[in-house]
Amino acid sequence: MKVFIKYLVGFSFFVSLLASAGMANAELAPDVLVKQTADDVLTIIKDDKEIQAGNQQKLYGVIEEKILPNFDFDRVCRMVL
């Protein structure tokens, strides 16, 4: 499970770096938003025993709440394709 969490956090960080050009939340500098989001997600994952036990639905909820609102994934997908 720890490998999955590390993979998920790493992937999320990578995607957030790609999305920094098309930020939906332009109030913060891109590097600040990425760092703040990564720190928030890591703190939640470390403190939540259900996520550590493998509750994927709760993990998906954290992703939807903390990561998805801050980044323009449609634009990132268009840039990649």
- Low-pLDDT regions: none
Distance between the termini: 31 Å
Care to count the β-strands? Answer: 0
Shape category: globular
Summarize the structure in words.
- This protein has about 80 residues and is an all-alpha fold.
- It has one domain (about 1-80).
- Helices cover about 75% and strands about 0% of the residues.
- The chain is globular.
- It starts with a helix and ends with a helix.
- The model has no long low-confidence stretch (mean pLDDT about 80).
Topology diagram in text:
Layout: H1 2-19, H2 30-47, H3 49-52, H4 56-66, H5 73-80
Helix pairs in contact: 1-2, 2-4
Comma- or semicolon-separated keywords:
single chain; 0% strand; mainly alpha
Quick overview of this protein structure:
The chain is mainly α.
